Amino acid sequence: MKADRSSEKSTTGGSGDQREIRRAVLSLALPIVGSDLLQRGVNVVDALLVGRLGAAELAAVGLSQLLLMFVMALVYGLGIGGTVMVAFHTGATDARRRAWSARTVLVIGVAATLVLGAAGILFSDAVVRFMGAEGRLFDLTHTYLHVTWYLFGAYVFLHLISAVFQGVGDTRTPLRAMVWVNILHVVVAVPLIFGLWGLPKWGVAGAALASGVSEGVGAAWLLWQAARRGLFGAWGAGWSPHELWRILRVGLPAMGERLITHGMQLVYARLVISFGVAAYAAHQVGLNIESLSFLPGLGFAKAATTLVGQRLGAQDAAGARRAARQANLLGLAIMSVWGASFVLFPRAWVGLFTPDPEVLAYSVPLMTTLGLMQPPLAVAMVTAGALRGAGDTPMVLAAAIAGGWCVRLPIAYVGGVVARIGMTMVWMTMALDWTVRCLIMVWRFKRLRLTDVRL
């Protein structure tokens, strides 16, 4: 992985090839965006339904989902490793090694289910108490989580098998699975939560059970589809310790990156809370609004991971670089449009979520910051996806540490709290964070000699 890229410049690609790559990026990214939206939809439906039972039930589901997101960050990293290796072998047209990778992903899924599920059952109560839940809130959170931990394999395999399909270049099959997961979830959740059609009223336990059952059915359907298409090779064939090492070599730094980022966001949230309820409410509204642009960026990032991995597997380093460029251009264009709307119509955006005048008072600095950070956020996300496709997940981890822990948190504390500049300074550090990450990852990808990459 040296700086010299002269051997990559021999093939520049014509306009026809650029259009083909652009179509490939879009065909991969758009279903991913839909799948991610639907994945969030399961959580949103749970919150909407149990919210009718009371504030304690709503808070319990929200607290449970926060903890589950942290644990699923571990699975996310393993999924990236599986996607990269499956994509690499797909590009190399090596069906035998691709099947090894896919079967090894299943072995990882079994291990993750047993280890993380058992850890959740044993330690989640202590974590929930540490986060301040007590009384009825603790009891409801305990109920929701313990049902979830016993069905945790559904979440794990739904994500990991989707990652295998993504590596193959098929993002539409996971999208179809998520459509049916959402439909089944509503059908099961409503009677179980509210006790309809002669069923007992299980409340938050019913919500957790509905999520686990629907996602378990989705995972089983994806497993059947993958086996039917021969992605796992012959039945009874074993897994590969060598492929396991290659998946972990890529996946563990990705896992670390997610944990580092989630930890930073937790500390940052505590800093925002110190400025009062209105400031934190505005911050949460901003995060909900910003997710509208974040999800398309995430889709293009995952598309870049798949296409770069496939092109490198086919020993087409120049094609991998062109794929990353096209994914970046598309992600940058779409997210910049969102950013412009944030800057031009800040009060209109925040007003969609709350009429509270104290919260609306923060709308201009908040939405201006979110708008200005969209271009560096887009490039950082997509370039990180390209680096993951090349197996360079340690650099993505390093950029997350530099931007989040070395730039955002210290400057937010010193400028916002010590110097008393206020929330405007705290929010501006989000843009600084993503600008630093963007510069680091663009510099790395430009200097990365893709012809030397060996996954």
Account of the 3D structure:
By secondary structure, the protein is mainly alpha-helical. It folds into 2 domains: 227 residues, no CATH class; 206 residues, no CATH class. The chain is 82% helix and 0% strand. The chain has 16 helices and no strands. α1 runs antiparallel to α9, α3 packs antiparallel against α4 and α6 packs antiparallel against α7. The termini are close together. The mean pLDDT is 87.
By oligomeric state, this entry counts as: single chain
> What structural class should be given to the helix and strand makeup?
mainly alpha
Number of strands: 0
Q: What is the helix tally?
A: 16
Q: What's the N-to-C terminus distance?
A: 12 Å
Major sheet details = none
Radius of gyration: 22 Å
User: Low-confidence segments, ≥5 residues, pLDDT <50?
Assistant: none
Q: Level of helix content? A: over 70%
Strand content: under 5%
Mean pLDDT: 87
User: What's the helix-strand series?
Assistant: HHHHHHHHHHHHHHHH
Basic shape? globular
Domain module count: 2
List the helices and strands and how they pair.
Layout: H1 15-50, H2 55-91, H3 95-130, H4 135-150, H5 152-168, H6 172-194, H7 204-228, H8 241-273, H9 277-313, H10 317-344, H11 346-351, H12 357-360, H13 363-372, H14 374-389, H15 393-418, H16 423-447
Helix pairs in contact: 1-2, 1-6, 1-7, 1-9, 1-10, 2-3, 2-4, 2-5, 2-8, 2-9, 3-4, 3-5, 3-8, 4-7, 5-7, 6-7, 8-15, 9-10, 9-13, 9-14, 10-13, 10-14, 13-16, 14-16, 15-16
Outline of the structure:
It contains 16 helices and no strands.
Give short descriptive properties of this protein:
mainly alpha; 455 residues
